[in-house]
Structure formats: C-alpha cells, structure tokens
Amino acid sequence: MAKKQETKPVVVEETVTEEVTEVVNDFVEVEIPRERKVPSNEWEIKDRVYYLKGDKKPLSRSIKAANIYWFDEEKGYERELKYCQNQKTSFVDEMKGDQRLEHIIFRSGSLFVPKEKTTLQKLLSLYHPHKDSIYEEYKPSKLAEEEIDVLDMQVDALVAARNVDIDMAEAIMRVEKGSGVSKLSSKELRRDLLVFARNNPKLFLELADDENVMLRNFGIKSVEEGILRLSSDQRNFLWGSNGRKIMTIPFDEHPYTALAHWFKTDEGMEIFSNIEKRLNN
Q1: Stretch 8-36: mean pLDDT, rounded?
Q2: I need a labelling partner for 95 at 20 to 30 A (CA). Which of 14, 131, 162, 235 fits?
Q3: Which backbone phi and psi does 8 adopt, to 5 degrees?
C-alpha cells in the first residue's frame, strides 16, 4: 500500500512596491535688465562742456589745434596731435588721406562739444597739454566735491571763530581791518570775526593757528598807545617816551612780524612784561 505524500503548504510572499512620485516644478528664469555701468577705462559717449580757468571770460579764445604732442607710455615716445575735422583720430600717425585742420575756439569762456565729435572730446579730455591749466572739463561731481570741501572749511572756521576769546578775535581782525579794530565794540568785533571766518575760512584758520598773531597784535597796540614807536624808515623800534632804540628790524622782514619774534627772546620777554604792565594800567 503506497504511502500518502505529505503536502506542504505553499507560502506566498507579498512584495510591496513603493511608488515614488517625483514632482518637478519647471520654471523659466527671467533676467532682470540692469543699468549698464561704464567702466573707468571705457569712453562714455555724451555731450561735454569745457570752460576756461580763471575769472576772465574773453569773447573768443583759441587754443592749439596742431603742433602739440602727447607722450604715449605704451609706445614709449611722443605722438603728434592735430585736430582735423575729416579724421577719426587726433593722432597724426593714424590719420589717412588729406588733413583739414580745424580751429578750437572757446566762446565767452566755454566750449560745448556734442557727443558726435568724439575725436575733439578725446583730444580735449585726455591728450591736450593745456588740459587743467588753461581749461577744464565741466564735471558736476568734481564741482560738488570742491564745494563740500569749502563748506566743511567754512563750518570749521565758524566754529573756531565762535570759541576764540576777545583778545584773539581782536588780534585776528587787526590783520583784516588794521587800527580800525580799536574802535569796535565787543559785539561788533564778534560779528565781523564771524563774517570774516565765513568769507575767508582758509585765511581765518591760518591766522587762528598762527602763534605769532597775538604777539603782532600786542606790538601794534603798543605803537598805537605810544609806548613804542616805529622809526620813519621802518628799520627800528624805539621807546615812545625817549626815542631809545630797543631792536633793529632784520632786512626784508615785516616790522611787526620781526617784533613778534623778538618778544620770544630773553631780552624781548623783559620788554614784553614792561609793556604789558603799561597797557594794563
């Protein structure tokens, strides 16, 4: 009798497959237009204005348009320049064909050069030997910078003028007004000092920092009060009472500047103390 075969159960393994869905967001990058900046070594095409330096503005003023030279560091030699209306360059060694020379004329102190005349602009802005000596290119940013420097100097001068004592104020204003300072009241002196600092800030600051300005003022007051006397030939300072000489002024030196220097010497310090006591009495 045949044996009955055992039947094993069949195990079915379940395979779980994970479905991954990848989401891709497609987008188009749009470039935002930006303002183009002109590199420092690239010529900017624009209208330009040039003006003569100084206060004089003649009806017409010509500058050289030929027989001028510019040293080319890359080439290592001087290159001749010439402004010709029918050429695309101002360098003679690059010109082609005939050369029709054109004049460069400032009218009423200025010269307007439109952007189409690039050759003339480059000649005036880059190569011409009279650039920054006879004429300048109008540059608003440069003028603004210069104006800021002047305004800063005015502020410094006004602040210093407000803080100086009355003796220093008198000494500074005596340089500007001379002996007329003695007739001013303290408020008038303060007002004139502030006006002077505003209108002449550089000179004011120089005087305020000058250690001899007080001594010069002291010497002038001594002469005004008759304590000292300056000889008619301006060669000697004398005592006002007896005419005795106290010092000789060095040749080609201002009398009161020389007196201020002399007050710093041993002999001068004694005379200074003597005069100071007389002025205070």
Answers
A1: 49
A2: 131
A3: -85, 140
